[in-house]
Amino acid sequence: MRSLTAVRAGGAFLIAGALAFMGVFAFLAARFNYPQVLDGTAEHVLPSLLATGTTGRAVWAIYGFLPLIWIPAAVGAFQALRPVREGSMRIAMLFAVVSSVSMMLGLLRWPSIHWSLAEAYATAGEAERAAIGSTFAGLNSFLGNYVGEFLGELAFSLFFLLTGFAMLARGSRFPRWAAYLGLTTAAAGLIGMFRNVTDVVGPIAAVNNYLLPLWMIVFGVALFRHRPISPRLT
What are the tens digits of pLDDT across the range 20-36? Predict the structure, then answer.
């Protein structure tokens, strides 16, 4: 009974997280030209960030904590699929934790460090603005591109990949079409995470922005409707 509760909780977090993701993404796209703004320089981005006001800062904070949903989602997926692929689902759960932490580090720079840089930039002189701009670019490269985007997306794509294969395993009660959707989302994520290396994968990364919340909802519903299965005898 406790394992079923964990499975359903994981599904509920995925569904709620997908809806929250779409909400904050829409707000930031309208008010902050997100995600195109990520390629901008400090002189354009920091004043725009500050102009979003308290509401914008709060939305960034919500966005920053959203990756926490991967943890209950991974626990729910593990409990649902451990009878058919316990080993790989343990690894998937670890990847979900890595993704959660790394994505939070990347996203939470906006309402914290970047917000402080934006406030300082507004009253700084030319020399100080050059230093702030270098700090801003360095943080974007490390916390944004390498940790938040590349490592974070690599980890959750591997979580989806292992989960999709487990759904296809003999004895699984998950629909095969859902498993294939998960594998497709994982593949798109693994390709799209190279968007900072080459523009060739840009269209795939753009499609994945819509595919990801769809998969989260499908995955969440599948977990919520899941019924326990008996472990295989070997």
Answer: 999 999 999 999 988 88
